[in-house]
Amino acid sequence: MAALTKPKNLQDVAAPGRDGVGASPLRPDGILKVKGDFAYSSDLWHEDMLWGMALRSPHARARILSVDVSAALAQPGVYAVLTHEDIPGSKFYGLEIRDQPVLAIDEVRFHGEPIVIVAADHPETARRAIAKIVVEYDVLPSIGPVEALDPERYGYVHAPADYKAHAFGNIVHSQHIHHGDGDSAEVRALADVIVRGEYEVGMQDQAFLGPESGLAVPAEDGGIDLYIATQWLHVDRQQMCPVLGLPPEKVRLTLAGVGGAFGGREDISMQVHACLLAQHTGKPVKIVYNREESFFGHVHRHPATMVFEHGATRDGRLVFVKAEIVLDGGAYASTSPAVVGNAASLGIGPYVIPHAAVDATAVYTNNPPCGAMRGFGAVQMCFGYETQMDRLAAELGLDPVELRRMNAMEQGSVLPTGQVVDAPAPVAELLRRVKEMPLPEVENWRTADGPDVRELPGGLSNTTHGEGVVRGIGYAVGIKNVGFSEGFDDYSTARVRLEVIGGAPVALVHTAMAEVGQGGITVHAQIVRTELGVDQVTMAPADTRVGSAGSTSASRQTYMTGGAVKQAAEAVRAVVLARGRDRYGWAPAFAAGLRLAGGKALTAAGEVVADLVDLLGDEPVDETTEFRHRPTEAFDKVTGQGFGHVQYTFCAHRAVVDVDVELGLVKVIELAAAQDVGKAINPLAVVGQIHGGSTQGLGLAVMEEIIVRDGKVRNPSFTDYLIPTILDTPPMPVDVLELADAHAPYGLRGAGEAPTLSSTPAIVAAIRAATGLPLNRVPVRPEHLTGT
Amino acid sequence: MEFLRPATWEEALAVKAQHPSAVPIAGGTDVMVDLNFDRHRPDALLDLNRIHELHTWQIADDDTVRLGASVPYSKIIDALPDRLPGLALGARTVGSPQIRNRGSVGGNLGGASPAGDAHPPLLASGATVEAASVRGTRLIPIDDFYLGVKRNALEPDELIRAIHIPSATGPQQFAKVGTRNAMVIAVCSFAVALHPRARDVRTGIGSAAPTPRRASEAEAFIRAELDDTGLWTSAGELPLSTAKRFGELVARAAAPIDDVRGSAAYRRHALAVMARRTLLWTWNDHRATGRAAA
Amino acid sequence: MRETLGLTGPKKGCDLGQCGACTVLVDGRRITSCLTFALMHGGREVTTIEGLGGDPEGDLHPVQQAFVDHDAFQCGFCTPGQIMSAVALLAEGHAGDDDEIREWMSGNLCRCAAYPNIVAAITAAAGR
Q1: Could you give all domains of chain A from N- to C-terminal order, each with its CATH number?
Q2: Domain range for residue C90?
Q3: What value does the CA radius of gyration of chain B take, rounded to a whole number of Å?
């Protein structure tokens, strides 16, 4: 094998088609992906490459008494065996709080925590070496979310002296919100009806198909080149540099193909391990997790317990909501503080409610660390508040959709944080649309040749021929924020270059944005075409040679890096038109009114005044710019008030299910969605995102859970962590609204996460309708439906 | 780890006699899982893929199907759905289309996992396992084949050559519970086969006991009911109460555990439901055939 | 395939045969390659995604083209396996209707859930 030959997706790629914003040209990486030529981080090879692997803790909580690596070091083919003692710099990392050891020091706090890393000439050699490492543990009882709240009795996950930021007493972070008069006695007295419910959301996993992997190559300048699948190159580097003891310019990251992310790649996994081993051995090191290790190697969605009280008048007007949520953050902080902020601020739903008291808390436990997963704290709350709305409707004898529409937020409504929704918020309209979609056929499993099991609950497993099958319909709507919040200075950088190649104007776009399948690079090409009037656009690979593009998360990339590309393209246009002013003597006002289209400079009326090729000549224009959204502020520690979020996005679902009520098996027959995307930059991609989010919500509703007992993960495999197959995924009609948000580029609204919110409660509501059961927990299991 | 590749059946038997701890591998869809995750590293693997006859089947004079141990599930579904309807239904639920192109009944029997989808239909059909060694061939009745969790009656030097399954003389059914609509390991499963000529009903329970097993009491009950009420001849409706009682007795025959896939209580409950339903489906099919023939 | 021959098209997604990302064809029949030793297929023809399109710079196989046209992927990690499965499904004659396509593609997971577009792509490739 040769030294790293650059796979085609790590080189410039031409974006296919000629379409700009609002059309659906094909993905620049599409042909490579269907041909198998798209190299994911697990597909990279380098001459002299070693394989890295980690020894992970079999215990959820234990003191490490001793680590003996001598037998591993003696194994032929082993080049390095490293513990925390071999780390040149800082021993900790973390996205918000640097509390996570690169390699465990004197204790392990979760099942699967890495303790030792090995580099060997073959993965099998590494595996055998790891099997020879002897670790002596003093196993301790693990601390769960209930025990965590009584640290004096059950213990501290982190020693009090180690707490950073606002963490204390096993609490990572908490946020209170006081809105109106909260849930005071006077407020309660205003409600004719109060409905109380306790809810639970199990631990969901991102389960991206491409496992954690990357290749670290030591460079001649003493630095490292890392080829990695991740969500944010620059924040990875920011955490890696202090550990490696290297300055940023010596640590260069290039995005390799990413096999899905969904939040699970926001925290670093094997990045530092591979670089440490490469640094130590002087050889390239590749690390690839297998599926089992992957379940231990990334953060999961926070499991949560919630208590809600909704008070309303007899005619259905919401008076107050009191909500409490405890999120099990696991052993390390990851993004728990931000998840808390989201859960609190979005926790009462897209409704106008004059009074609210919300408390969100994330606790440290010895359970697997939890962090970002698509929906980020809003998913859990949506299950709670939407179930409450159905309960309230039942209590009041009102139609559940009408109750929601009656209380729906709209532009100008005020959130419990005091922030005014200053863009369209078509909550009632979205509900109306899903409600009015034609319903699918009933008993579509009946055919002339007998029952079609594929259309029945249980599917191919042949458990019913129609017996016990009851249909149910449910609705839900949710509110998600877009972007980073609470005063975080989020920005994205883009570089756009315009030059003449082969007699035609060609644009190059270079950002550090992690394309994880969401279609961001497709959109960048469209934006450049629209702004610069060129057809040919080339996409450069994402790397740290250009400034940060921020995270591919929080539904923010089209807004932020799309916005940066737009801004950079505008800067290029300004330079190009300035040349026109110089060459042709255009008045500034005249030049300001020109646009670029079809390779030309035109007046608003369409009169051609210059050729782009002439304006460019042999002098390329190359502009790099940073794009920021309007500033946000932190939520007040006591009242929770503050202009905390950049943008809001709304999605509504209607779920139709058939339930085999005797066996407790569910088939989702149809999952319809209506969502406002502000402006569909690429309509095909937007619908794909809505399908993707809806299906993950379906998974949480009926099948997905990481089962943890006493801190131990019981099902780290695809055999027992089930994600929806194509046969579980129903037709999903999608109605896309485009009501512009004037603050955003092209009026767009981030789209990726909102569908994961309302899909889950809509499906569970449909199951309740079919069974009459309360169902306060997701995922819904057959045992819950059969009472066994 | 040695990788042994005999070219003929006789060679395979000789190799197995010399390496009793060698693990036979054909489709690989079960054995490879343990190897990939390092749960089991045998000293030797015995690759049966070169032995063509294991991929074939023959129909005997008495209409018994002699099914080669390595015939993939996809072949059974395509070619033998009328002779082996219960097994074909079970085969249709195994894994995925890709797994079904490689997985086989021989593999299921060799691994003897209580969750194997072939076991309940084999029990309900009254199959016989043809086991061979250098010492000769013996026929092991399926009822005697499962000894314990993942333990079968094979001697260390024996390989499975074929499974003898009587062609169906009456309707057969198979149902399995999983929490997804495809590609699931059974939470529990159930097979039932009517044998009208013998006036017999046989069953098979999967994933709800240390081994696959029959529900003997349930079988005795329904046999007696059908005889006492003359339903075999009259081909009348089977009362729901009878089917329910049958279901209860099937559930009683199980000895399930609580695990990540389901609780013991749910497994018993689900078995009762599946047994009731599949009995009614087979009985109603039987009535329809009878009426059609009349 | 991946390490010795450099054919990184087939992917390792789960090591258990539970995701289908490793799907290849052996004598035209689809299998999960993660559960197979190469040695077990001595003398047989193995086709990976790289072997579908004819010459390296040439036209796409109709199924590949259909996947591109219908945006039947997002991150693309499952795509080589999906396409190999779909090619086999069409040869098996299992593209009669949407339900049949779903049943016979149920061994290929897609976490991005491009499933609706996968059904559309296979339907188009089947000429319906």
Answers
A1: 42-140+218-258+265-297 (3.90.1170.50), 422-478+643-786 (3.30.365.10), 491-628 (3.30.365.10)
A2: 23-125
A3: 19
CB burial class (10 A; 0-12, 13-18, 19+) of residue A469?
buried
Domain extents for chain B?
172-293
Residues in chain A within 8 Å Cβ distance of C119: 726
Residues in chain B closer than 8 A to C39 (CB atoms): 3, 5, 47
Q: Whose CA is closest to A638, among A418, A414, A314, A354?
A: A418
Residues A156-173 pLDDT 10s = 999 999 998 889 999 999
Is the CB of residue A248 less than 8 Å from the CB of residue A275? no
Question: Distance between CA A255 and CA A273 in Å, rounded?
Answer: 17
**Cβ within 8 Å, pair B183-A662:** no
Share of chain A above pLDDT 70, in %: 100
Show the DSSP H helices in A310-406 as ranges: 336-345, 378-396, 400-406
Whether chain A has a CB inside 8 Å of the CB on B73: the answer is: no
Handedness of CA A506, A511, A517, A523 (dihedral sign): negative
pLDDT one-digit tens code per residue, A251-273? 999 999 999 999 999 999 999 99
Instruction: For residue C15, list chain B residues with Cβ-Cβ distance below 8 A.
Output: 33, 36-37
Give the tens place of pLDDT for each residue, B216-240: 999 999 999 999 999 999 989 999 9
Q: A34, A269 in Cβ contact below 8 A? A: no
Helix (H, G, I), strand (E, B) or coil at B275: helix
Percentage of residues in chain C having pLDDT higher than 90 = 91
B270 interaction partners in chain A (CB closer than 8 Å): 663, 782, 786
Query: Which pTM does this prediction carry?
Result: 0.97
Reading the block at residue B283, the tokens are 């009985």
Topology (CATH) of B172-293: Enolase-like; domain 1 (3.30.390)
List, for residues A642-655, the tens digit of each pLDDT value.
Answer: 999 999 999 999 99
In a domain, C104, yes or no: yes
* B182 touches C at CB < 8 Å: yes
What digits encode the pLDDT tens for the residues B103-132? Answer: 999 999 999 999 999 999 999 999 999 999
For residue range C57-76, list pLDDT tens digits in order. Answer: 678 999 999 999 999 999 99
Q: Could you tell me which chains touch chain C, where touching means 3 or more CB pairs under 8 A?
A: A, B
Kindly state whether B261 is in contact with chain A, defined as any CB-CB distance less than 8 angstroms: yes
Where helices occur in B136-263 by DSSP H, the ranges are 216-228, 231-234, 240-253
- Interface membership of A663 toward B (CB under 8 Å): yes
Partner-chain residue, chosen from A43, A260, A694, that has the shortest CB–CB distance to C8: A43
Question: Residue B172 — φ and ψ, nearest 5°?
Answer: -135, 150
C12 within domain boundaries? no
What is the identity of the amino acid at A320? F
- A4 has pLDDT over 90: no
The H-or-E segment that residue C65 falls in is helix C62-69
pLDDT score for B294: 52
Residue C2 in domain: no
User: Which of B93, B183, B270 is opposite residue A663, by nearest beta carbon?
Assistant: B270
Question: What does the block give as tokens for A491?
Answer: 């920005």
Q: Is residue C18 part of a domain?
A: no
B108 touches C: beta carbon within 8 Å: no
What ipTM was assigned to the predicted interfaces of this complex?
A: 0.98
